[in-house]
Specification:
Elements: H1 7-19, E1 25-26, H2 27-33, H3 35-43, H4 46-65, E2 71-76, E3 84-89, H5 92-95, E4 100-102, H6 112-118, E5 121-123, H7 125-139, H8 147-160, H9 168-171, H10 183-199, E6 203-208, E7 215-228, E8 231-238, E9 243-248, E10 252-257, E11 294-300, H11 304-310, E12 315-319, E13 325-331, H12 334-342, E14 348-352, H13 354-376
Parallel strand pairs: 4-5
Antiparallel strand pairs: 1-3, 2-3, 6-7, 6-10, 7-8, 8-9, 11-13, 11-14, 12-13
Helix pairs in contact: 2-3, 3-4, 7-8, 12-13
Length: 378
């Protein structure tokens, strides 16, 4: 079983084990506790144990490179040559983001122990208001390089302090959270696909393509799942196309895992596979069908052109003396791309292809119609 544990799961097991301990763990304790190491460490010969130890050393370096604050601490060991051995510790106050608390918001104040354990940050009500308003302002600046990060921070701050009365004049509109109508169905599909992925069982489902509107039957070996831009995606080897494909879970119909030989894996995930090839893509780049992508050309006015360049959006095709830029984009999903352009408020001009230009005009007309209808009933 340990041989089937991939590296991501192995690293998560190391983190979970160390976070759950109050005291540092010796190398031996860690290698005995983490499933991916334990099999060869406990029952293996010297060669196997040396191999596991080298694996842990590589994992340790990778965790630290990823920003995980894994500490090496000396531990007393009478059997060690110098009476001291190495131990490892992952303190929750260094690993987790601090909790936010508004002073005077009601409820008993936290003890000194709670503050130390959770790394609590306390804000006065006026400080919380100022932080939220500052984030709201920079999040509305289309040329701000960290606009996306500011929006994420604004949502987190608004959510964490949602129950805190910060004053009607300063808080503005409330932050609302709503589930999609199909949320329960998607949740069931994600659970089914996750179980199939863990058991390494193939999955069959009907899939609705995006641009062609075609429905096809798929037989997929799940390689991984990810949540991006508000949607769940499944990456896996598609028997129909004999290639790795990315599928949007919301476009699936009733995924059914292979029930034959439930205790035997149907496939193995290739050693070189990683979700990194799909992570970090924009919503319009997450292709989930087999249509060829469109190549869009967009002219950006300055300073929006500077923002797109800093964020690595598109490929530079032309640059003007006034700071304007024409950038090309590979568009697999048209609607997210058109919605993004429309949100730039006229500072970006779509030059082609014609079908995308027509789609943008239609989307703009639909938006205008919604606002006109709202004004008529207001």
């Amino acid at each position: 079983m340990a041989d089937r544990i991939d590296k991501t799961q192995r690293l998560l097991d190391v983190i979970a084990y160390l976070v759950g301990r109050r005291q540092p763990a010796t190398v031996e304790e860690l290698l005995e506790a983490v499933p991916a190491y334990a099999g060869k460490w406990v029952g293996g010969d010297e060669t196997a144990r040396a191999s596991v130890r080298r694996m842990f050393e590589r994992d340790k370096d990778e965790l630290r490179d990823a920003g995980i604050p894994l500490e090496t601490v000396p531990l007393h060991d009478a059997e060690a040559p110098a009476g001291v051995t190495e131990g490892y510790r992952l303190r929750t106050r260094d690993f987790f983001l601090p909790y936010l608390r508004v002073i005077g918001a009601g409820g008993p104040p936290p003890s000194a122990r709670e503050r130390a354990r959770h790394g609590m940050v306390e804000l006065a009500a006026d400080e919380a208001v100022a932080a939220r308003e500052a984030l709201r302002q920079v999040a509305d600046l289309t040329s701000f390089p960290l606009r996306r990060e500011a929006r994420q921070a604004l949502r987190k701050l608004s959510f964490d302090l949602a129950a805190v009365p910060l004053g009607d004049a300063a808080t503005g509109a409330p932050v609302l959270f709503a589930e999609r109508e199909e949320a329960d169905a998607i949740r069931d599909r994600v659970e089914t696909l996750s179980e199939a992925l863990i058991a390494r069982k193939r999955v069959r489902f009907r899939y609705h393509g995006i641009r062609r509107g075609e429905t096809t039957d798929r037989d997929v070996a799940p390689y991984g799942m990810m949540f991006q831009h508000g949607n769940w995606y499944l990456a896996g080897h598609d028997a129909l196309r004999d290639d790795v494909r990315l599928f949007r879970v919301a476009r699936m119909e009733t995924p059914v895992p292979n029930r034959a030989s439930p205790k035997s894996a149907d496939y193995e995930i290739p050693g070189g596979f990683t979700l990194d090839a799909f992570r970090g893509r924009e919503a319009w780049e997450l292709g989930t069908d087999d249509d060829e992508a469109l190549e869009a050309r967009v002219r950006f006015a300055f300073p929006l052109s500077l923002w797109t360049e800093r964020n690595g959006l598109g490929t530079l095709e032309e640059g003007g003396a006034d700071g304007t830029q024409v950038r090309s984009f590979r568009v697999t999903q048209t609607q997210p791309f058109l919605r993004w352009l429309l949100g730039l408020g006229g500072e970006a001009m779509l030059e082609g292809p014609p079908e995308l230009v027509a789609g943008l005009r239609e989307l703009a007309r639909d938006v205008v119609a919604v606002y006109e209808a709202g004004a008529a009933h207001g």
